[in-house]
Design a protein that fits this description.
Elements (H helix, E strand, L loop, with lengths): L4 H13 L24 H14 L3 H5 L1 H9 L3 E3 L6 H4 L10 H21 L9 H24 L14 H4 L6 H18 L16 H14 L3 H12 L27 E5 L28 H5 L10 E3 L1 H8 L10 H4 L65 E5 H16 L4 H13 L18 H17 L5 H7 L6 H10 L2 E6 L2 E2 L10 E5 L16 H6 L8 H4 L17
Antiparallel strand pairs: 1-3, 2-4, 5-6, 5-7
Length: 585
């Protein structure tokens, strides 16, 4: 994953400089790679395809802020540094905040390269049948780019032709609606499903290449976002039934959050590839294009999640609600849900040889039963997903783009839960098949079947109860502190329902521990004196569930108008009925 860096500068430069007007002296250096002479044969075009994989590992895509913005936007985690992610946690980032532009900027780099590949394929020499797979991968990455932009920015310019970049004026395109973006995403993914092989082909297609299963999975997620439940159900059940390759849940939930042999496992449908610990380069380059041939090629999610006591930046904490949710139900053996161990850094009596108490090296979470807080000034429960807190690989965090654990963006467990939700919506109630899908996820965690659960057995009695269970019990426990919760809150319409917004505030409550008037840096969930300091949505203004466009971007391209709903404080009132809150007593 290094030789592709050679071409990135030329591609970006081509998009920027090719709009220059006529020159008095037009002399071309035939040895210099440009968008005209690069990608004209199968070998170099393949390098452009690989560049797409590199671009989803940028600052604004999935290496740091592009991942964490959505974690903050959700109700199961909150900002504990009170600096870096606070405007995105509180959903009140001003249009003047340059960080608003980072996700927009980096996903358009990905779209730019994907468009380059798609446009070059018809005329490239020696491509033959390989063009199908090249085109399929490029279509997937273009769709993935617009999926993220649609979910973060609502509306955006829709560019599908690389020639658009040939002239500066042409590149100042107008704003397209969210529905127009969704239509393009669906079109791209529908074709990609037909062009890409499955993971069953083996080789690179089972070790990180985009497959038809990944395309089908993101097509289903897009359809779910758009409330096209019957169509989504079809693709989700095709994945489950093996039409796009064989997938199965791994026996050990923790295998989804470790590096090395655990990566690209049977449960993983799509993940971002990072170099393992000890195999990375030395150049920690944060630039948007990341052209260094010796780049570290890791991510900074570990730095954001890990507690300050272990060298992390301590930016994001798990919510007390999420912790208590894990505690609400025991396994069939009367033990804690093992997913708690792999999600939140706590010390529990159940953590034994199979689940060591250990954190990094010889440092322990809760060694004296008082625990470790994420941030000493603002408290918080540490998140251990996407960190080495449970792996024993390293003794302390080396901050920056250093973590080598691949980010699993789509797992079979998510597909099971989405399929159950789709069936519930189509049938206005859970069917035996929907309950079976949920039980597969529960059983892997050692829990009894849902209909036998003392706490949640009423979930099978109605559509509202089943949805509540999926949305506020099983999805948070299975997918807690992973990318996607913010997308879910939007597609469910919860920002525009008083009871749901109240519930979200309760979930994201941030506590201070005060004893005799002094704030203590002990775990919030252990303190009977804990009191609510604020919630993530106290300052929420309708329309700000999306990131506002950076004002300089709007100034540069007046065709973008006033931006999106966050720029104009415009509500996005759902056209569908939001399911009411159901209480499990």
């Amino acid at each position: 994953m290094k030789k592709f860096n050679i071409i990135l500068t030329s591609l970006v430069a081509a998009a920027t400089l090719s709009g220059c007007s006529e020159d008095l002296l037009d002399v071309k250096n035939t040895n210099q790679m440009t968008s005209e002479n690069f990608g004209n044969e199968v070998e170099t075009l393949e390098e452009a395809v690989i560049a797409c994989y590199n671009h989803i590992r940028m600052e604004g895509t999935y290496s740091r802020v592009g991942y964490n913005y959505d974690v903050c936007r959700g109700d199961e985690a909150w900002n504990s540094s009170q600096v870096w992610y606070l405007p995105f946690d509180d959903l009140n980032s001003p249009a003047t905040n340059e960080m608003n532009n980072w996700v927009f900027r980096d996903w358009y780099y990905t779209i730019n390269v994907a468009n380059f590949v798609i446009n070059k394929i018809p005329t490239a020499e020696g491509v033959s049948e390989a063009h199908k797979r090249m085109r399929g991968q490029a279509l997937f990455f273009r769709a993935l780019g617009y999926y993220n932009i649609m979910g973060y920015y609502q509306c955006a310019p829709l560019i599908t032709d690389y020639e658009t970049y040939s002239d500066l004026e042409k590149s100042y395109v107008s704003m397209n609606s969210q529905q127009e973006l969704i239509a393009q995403i669906k079109t791209d993914l529908e074709e990609a499903v037909t062009l890409l092989p499955s993971r069953d082909e083996g080789g690179e297609w089972a070790q990180g290449r985009v497959t038809c299963g990944a395309a089908a999975g993101y097509l289903a997620k897009t359809l779910m976002f758009n409330h096209e439940f019957a169509e989504a159900q079809k693709y989700l059940e095709n994945i489950i039934n093996g039409e796009y390759g064989k997938y199965e849940l791994v026996e050990n939930y923790g295998a989804n959050f470790q590096e090395g042999a655990y990566e690209n496992n049977s449960e993983s449908i799509f993940e971002v590839q990072f170099l393992d610990n000890g195999k990375q380069g030395t150049d920690e380059e944060w630039t948007p294009v990341n052209v260094s041939s010796d780049a570290t090629q890791g991510h900074a999610i570990e730095s954001n999640f890990a507690a300050g006591a272990f060298g992390g930046w301590a930016d994001i904490s798990a919510s007390v609600w999420l912790y208590q949710l894990f505690k609400s139900e025991s396994t069939k053996e009367g033990k804690l849900d093992p997913r708690l161990y792999w999600t939140i850094g706590t010390s529990e009596s159940d953590w034994t040889e199979d689940y060591p108490v250990g954190g990094y090296g010889n440092v322990y979470y809760g060694k004296d039963k008082s625990g470790i807080v994420t941030n000493n000034n603002y408290g918080g429960i540490p998140i251990v997903k996407w960190t080495n807190a449970r792996t024993g690989i390293i003794s302390a965090v080396t901050t920056g783009l250093r973590c080598g654990i691949n980010l699993r963006l789509l797992r079979l467990a998510d597909v099971y839960l989405l399929a159950a939700e789709a069936i519930n919506e189509v049938n206005n109630g859970p069917t035996a098949k929907a309950i079976e899908y949920v039980n597969k996820v529960r059983n892997r965690a050692g829990l009894c079947n849902l209909e036998e659960s003392t706490k949640y057995k009423s979930a099978v009695t109605s559509a509202d109860a089943f949805f509540e269970y999926l949305a506020n019990v099983e999805r948070p426990r299975e997918l807690g502190c992973e990318f996607g919760r913010g997308f879910d809150l939007i597609r469910w319409g919860w920002f525009y329902n008083f009871d749901r917004l109240t519930q979200m505030k309760e979930h994201s409550a941030i506590y201070l521990n005060k004893v005799n008037g002094a704030v203590k840096d002990t775990p919030l969930y252990l303190e009977p004196q804990a009191e609510v300091a604020k919630t993530s949505y106290d300052t929420y203004v309708e329309g700000h569930e999306y990131i506002p466009y950076y004002q300089n971007t709007l100034n540069t391209n007046p065709n973008l108008g006033n931006g999106n709903s966050a720029n104009t404080n415009t509500p996005n009132t759902p056209t569908f009925a939001v399911r009411p809150v159901y209480n499990f007593n």
